Amino acid sequence: xxxxxxxxxxxxxxxxxxxxxxxxxxxxxxxxxxxxxxxxxxxxxxxxxxxxxxxxxxxxxxxxxxxxxxxxxxxxxxxxxxxxxxxxxxxxxxxxxxxxxxxx
Length: 104
Prior knowledge:
The protein is 48% helix and 21% strand. It has helices spanning 6-29, 33-46, 92-103, and strands spanning 56-62, 65-73, 76-81. The longest helix has 24 residues, at 6-29. The termini are far apart.
């Protein structure tokens, strides 16, 4: 992990194993999309270091539809995340949905 700050490496080593267990348990219980969004939000905060109260927003409106999560860097939305239930197999229409959010 050359050029990765020690603080980031330490956070990854601590948090990733914890979330591997959380995700496996969630998959075993076949949790729904809303509960999966909650886990993804925690991963964004605890693993990637985003402030889930200031930088992560849910149900971000894009032309009368809603993307599950958006990440703001500064005051500008930089990333859109569409989440599906953890046990759901992704299909072509899910890809189209994500592409549509990005295009709009």
